[in-house]
Automatic annotation (TrEMBL):
This is Transcriptional regulator. InterPro entries: HTH_LacI, LacI/GalR-like_sensor, Lambda_DNA-bd_dom_sf, Peripla_BP_I. PANTHER family: HTH-TYPE TRANSCRIPTIONAL REPRESSOR PURR-RELATED (PTHR30146:SF148), LACI-RELATED TRANSCRIPTIONAL REPRESSOR (PTHR30146). SUPFAM superfamilies: lambda repressor-like DNA-binding domains (SSF47413), Periplasmic binding protein-like I (SSF53822). SMART domains: HTH_LACI. It comes from Jeotgalibacillus soli. Keywords: DNA-binding, Repressor, Transcription, Transcription regulation.
Amino acid sequence: MVSSKDVAKYAGVSQTTVSRVLNTPHLVKGPTYKKVMAAIDDLNYIPDGNARSLVQKKTDTIALVSGPLYNPFFVDTTTSIVNYANKNGFKINVHFSNDENLSETYNSIFENKVDGIILSSILLEDPIFDKLEKSGIPFITYNRKHKSNKNFVEMDNEQAGFLAADYLLSLKHETICWVGGPLEISTFKGRYNGFLKAFQKKAVAVKQEQVFITDTSKDELYQAFLKMEKLPEKPTAIHAATDAIAIQMMDFYISAGYRVPEDISIIGIDNVEMSQHASISLTTVGISSPIGLGQLAIENLIKMIQEKNKACIQITESVRIFERKTSVEK
């Protein structure tokens, strides 16, 4: 393997000069720079990124901890985060994680030097938050937040849950089932609280059998669907806590012979790109801004890194209804 020492000998310069060309090229005279770069090309020398990061005290690398790819929200946000970071000179190490293997994921990140961390996988009372703060590494959460209310970008989840439920109630649906994930997660807790508030406003009772809290996997959602089918009073509408859940519930109902929205109305939250496709056309709630949560988060994180800004980021985006074809009046 070719070393920087070999490059120095080939170019007729010192090893220190090679290091300067790689790390601080603006301090090297033009002819010397060209001579060293020619040697690098001739010898096909590949610089050691780890060694360079030790010298520069930065890696130009950001760790992204994303949720599972069966949720199109994370497909959309991962794409926007990676694209924006790359355009601004940063590489992204992506870790697709679920709440069961988070400790392993974070241990791996802490063991490898990165300039910043952007994450969507955090619980309201997650102990990892303290470790993130003590690490000294700039970080930001998106779509979820910790109970400390520090360094996050989210939508107004409670208002999103309220708007979705209020919309279904305005269509004269009374038997509405809520389907979402664990309430230890800020996203689901906020959206569930908004769902309840809409019913309270209309003085309509929510029965316990109308609420389905799952791990959001396909198998668990299917079990929820089967339980709905056995209810004495079947729902006429589904309030899904995410678009991913809504699309999966649509599939279950259509496969069972139901028509959406004639037999069952369905609304989601997130307004992911897939929801906008003509073949799905999901009625949903999403942020009002054309810039997604992922890009908002990575923009703020890179600003924190570049400006060495330790200010607390607190961004809650307003939301609105995107009325499409999966919900009609009862």
